[in-house]
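I would like you to sit down with the record closing this message with an eye to the fold:
=====
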Amino acid sequence: MGLIFKDAKDDQNEAMYEQIHLGNTWQWRYARIRWTITTTILCIVSGTSIAVADYAIFKLTEYSGVIGWILG
C-alpha cells in the first residue's frame, strides 16, 4: 500500500514479484508465445472433439449433428 502502511501482504507481494522473474522483455515474449501456442493447441483439440461428436451424432442417431440435435 505504501511505505507508511506496509504490512505482511506487501512483503508477500514483493517476494512473489521477485520469484516470478518476468521483468525482462524476452521473458514476457516467451510467456506470450507459450500462451499463444497453448491456446492454439487447445482450440484445435476442441474443434476436433466437436467435429468427432458431431459426426458420431450424425452417424449413430437420426439427428443432423450437434446443431440439429440442440435445435431439434
Notes: The chain is about 80% helix and 0% strand.
